[in-house]
Amino acid sequence: MSIRLGILGIGSMGRHHVRNARATAGVDLVALADPGGDRFGVAGDLPVLGGVEELIEAGIEMRHNTQDRNVSMYITNIACEPAGKMSGNMVVSMRPIPYEQVVQAVQISGAIPKVHGAPIHIGDPSVIGIDDISKPDFGDAVDIHEGEVPVFWPCGVTPQSVVMNVKPKFAITHAPGCMLITDTKNISLKF
User: Fold this and answer.
1) pLDDT reported for residue 52
2) Which of 14, 82, 156, 160 could be a cystine partner for 10, CB 3.0 to 4.6 Å?
3) Are 29 and 106 contacting, i.e. CB atoms less than 8 angstroms apart?
4) Among residues 169, 182, 180, 155, which one has the least CA distance to residue 72?
5) CB 181 within 8 A of CB 125
6) What per-residue confidence (pLDDT) applies to 103?
7) Measuring CA to CA, which residue among 132, 125, 175, 130 is closest to residue 151?
């Protein structure tokens, strides 16, 4: 049995990691991600991935899209760094990912930290304070199939958690699942 390995960043140091991974018995190099692309020509037959759209293009299903639902979102037990009177817990969005695609999903989303970035947690939801994954605090529940693991990303609905905790007299936020749309492309948000 080989270890499946993905490498995030294939620049001046990462290119050596690619070479060493390919030369190491028992290691199967399966994914590469770098916002700058393959500057040193080390990818070979592997695509160099980057944006969220690339998750879908790479065959990683976004279950809420295929089930025509809003993404599942949960208030966690992870406290946010307080800012004055504003405090509360992080909200995460969850997408079920097949075990064999988790590394690739982490690498692709990790390459765009100005959007959601890499997951905050993978696996047992109770570790981050989610008692029942079938009952999201926001959005809709989605089916989790055999062979999949719940993967949790930081969510832009976190301000709602803070507002609900602090109860200010007035606040403006976005509604869960209804994002601000601009002409900014995800490629410009990488690292």
Assistant:
1) 45
2) 14
3) no
4) 155
5) no
6) 87
7) 125
What is the rounded CA–CA span in Å between residue 130 and residue 75?
A: 7
* Token duo for residue 166: 């602090």
Two tokens, residue 21: 């991974």
Once rounded to an integer, what is the mean pLDDT over residues 85-100?
A: 91
Rounded Cα distance between 140 and 150, Å, is: 14
Residue 79: what pLDDT?
Answer: 93
Quick one: DSSP state of residue 68?
T
Tokens of 180: 């601000």
pLDDT, residue 57, reads: 67
Q: Alpha-carbon distance 22 to 142, whole Å?
A: 37
Q: Are residues 107 and 6 in contact, defined by beta-carbon separation less than 8 angstroms?
A: yes
Q: What is the pTM of this model?
A: 0.63
Distance, CA of 24 to CA of 88 (rounded, Å):
46
User: How many Cα atoms are found within 13 Å in the side-chain-facing hemisphere of 182?
Assistant: 7
Question: Cα 110 vs. chain centroid, distance in angstroms?
Answer: 7
Amino acid at 35: P
For residue 55, the model assigns a pLDDT of 55
Q: What is the mean pLDDT of residues 51-57?
A: 56
